[in-house]
Design a protein that fits this description.
Elements (H helix, E strand, L loop, with lengths): L43 E2 L14 E6 L9 E3 L2 E12 L10 E2 L2 E2 L5 E2 L3 E11 L5 E10 L5 E2 L10 E2 L3 E5 L5 E5 L4 E5 L16 E3 L2 E6 L9 E6 L5 E6 L10 E5 L2 E6 L4 E5 L6 E6 L10 E3 L2 E6 L5 E5 L5 E2 L6 E5 L10 E3 L2 E5 L5 E5 L5 E6 L13 E3 L2 E5 L4 E6 L6 E6 L9 E3 L2 E5 L3 E6 L7
Parallel strand pairs: 1-32, 22-26
Antiparallel strand pairs: 2-38, 3-4, 4-8, 5-6, 7-10, 8-9, 11-12, 12-13, 13-14, 15-16, 16-17, 17-18, 19-20, 20-21, 21-22, 23-24, 24-25, 25-27, 28-29, 29-30, 30-31, 32-33, 33-34, 34-35, 36-37, 37-38
Length: 456
């Protein structure tokens, strides 16, 4: 592994991607956005009549100041909104030392590492969906941190997940925390030091039946990478398997194929499918050969994996296989252009939309990988190093780092329908629930809705 490969990791924690857990039927309701990328972990809502225009003076139902920093997406269940944040404190003891990171036989150091010499407080917040009032705020962890993060990142990057009774928040080396809806700590669990080459964690928790699953890929050689399932009620470890892949910031997805449920993971070296009940491997294929950050998307019976650096790579896999599937018809198609470094693609209708760091869209036929259009641009020059697209009612929302959200018509022809702004930078994806769009900015959480209907 060349050191140069890690120089561009500056952006990996800016909107990291996160989870696609399988939820019980009551958790998949469109009035809830219970995990990263929504009801099916794919960023797609079936709601209609949502606003497509907003500004600081139009259709902002409320905005609430949020302390600290966090790139975790807000999640919503019923009348409750949950999110995490990291608040920086004073100086850490001089005796506190981070782990050493090796790339081959050389120690790796990044000039923009940050945070180990500070004290930090990691919090979980619960807000009222209709008013934005903070109902409770809990300190999950307080003290020194195990490892650095990039200075443009945050220690609260993974998105929490809920089942309507409890909410689970993950802070990497600083632990997993389960709270009930009244803010009572149910349990906490430390998984040990998780080394991400000093860039911070990004993978979010996935719920499956009675477990919470975490993908903990780490190191330049992957020798310490693992996948673990914890009991949702107690935090006890149910199973753990080692993974032959280096550090990643992606989150697995859970999907059904061939009469079984599969937990499918992305990675640099391998794409691997597991039995989510036991951790047993079903199949594997050659990996993305790039930093695994984006959450895979599911469409037309395929799981589409992607990466954007150091090379652009898309691999569409038909699940349901066994053993090594390279060179078989289980690899449906591949493509090598159009992807972003951090944001995930989105599959909507019969298409999959790839987005570059500059917000340039490529639309592919999800079943075949054929190009429908490419070069679809937003009307202003901007960057997309954080938020992933979301979609609803024939529209796709692209939110830039500057806090502008571009409304794109879905379909075979690229068309920009509008541009909106919340007036501050944004580094994570919008969430959609019960007639509202929730956008987390650098300083505030915004609730956007049609004022005449949203508060009924």
């Amino acid at each position: 592994m060349k050191l140069q490969r890690w120089g561009m990791l500056a952006l990996v924690v800016l909107g990291l991607l996160f989870a696609a857990p399988e939820m019980k039927p009551e958790a998949a309701g469109e009035s809830n956005w219970a995990q990263w990328r929504g009801p099916d972990g794919q960023g797609v809502s079936s709601e209609k009549n949502l606003p497509t225009e907003w500004s600081e003076t139009k259709n902002i139902l409320w905005k609430t100041p949020i302390p600290g920093q966090g790139y975790s997406q807000p999640i919503i269940w019923g009348k409750r909104v949950f999110l995490t944040t990291a608040v920086e404190g004073g100086e850490a003891p001089a005796t506190h030392q981070p782990p050493k990171h090796l790339v081959g036989d050389r120690e790796f150091k990044h000039p923009e590492w940050y945070g180990v010499d500070k004290l930090h407080t990691f919090k979980v917040l619960c807000l009222d969906r209709d008013t934005g009032k903070v109902l409770w705020e809990r300190t999950a962890y307080e003290g020194t941190v195990y490892d650095y993060r990039h200075k443009r990142g945050t220690y609260a990057a993974p998105t929490p997940v809920t089942d309507g009774k409890n909410v689970w928040a993950y802070f990497g080396s600083e632990g997993v925390y389960c709270y009930d809806f009244d803010g009572k700590l149910v349990w906490k669990k430390n998984l040990g030091g998780i080394g991400t080459l000093g860039m911070g964690v990004g993978s979010s928790p996935v719920l499956y039946e009675n477990t919470i699953i975490l993908q903990c890929d780490q190191g330049a050689d992957g020798r310490d990478s693992f996948l673990a399932a914890l009991d949702r009620k107690t935090g006890a470890e149910v199973w753990r398997v080692k993974r032959p892949v280096q550090v990643s910031w992606t989150t697995p997805i859970i999907t059904k194929a061939g009469g079984r449920t599969e937990l499918i993971t992305s990675g640099n070296e391998f794409l691997i499918s597991y039995d989510p009940a036991t951790g047993k491997e079903y199949w594997r294929a050659g990996g993305l050969k790039s930093n695994a950050i984006a959450t895979p998307v599911v469409n037309q019976g395929l799981v589409i994996h992607s990466a954007g650096y150091p090379q652009k790579s898309i691999i569409a896999v038909k699940p349901g296989g066994a053993g090594t599937i390279d060179g078989t018809d289980k690899i449906a198609w591949t493509y090598n252009k159009g992807t972003a470094y951090v944001p995930s693609p989105i599959a909507y209708g019969e298409y999959v939309y790839l987005m570059s760091d500059a917000g340039i869209l490529t639309c592919l036929n999800a079943k075949t990988g054929e190009i429908v259009y490419e070069g679809g641009r937003v009307p202003v020059a901007t960057k997309f190093y954080g938020a992933s697209p979301v979609a609803f009612d024939g529209k796709i929302l692209l939110t830039s780092d500057d806090g502008e959200t571009f409304v794109i018509r879905a379909g075979e022809k690229h068309e920009v329908l509008g541009t909106n702004s919340v007036g501050e930078p944004v580094r994570t994806s919008p969430a959609i629930a019960d007639g509202r769009i929730f956008i987390r900015g650098d300083k505030h959480l915004f609730c956007i809705g049609n004022k005449e209907t949203a508060l009924k």
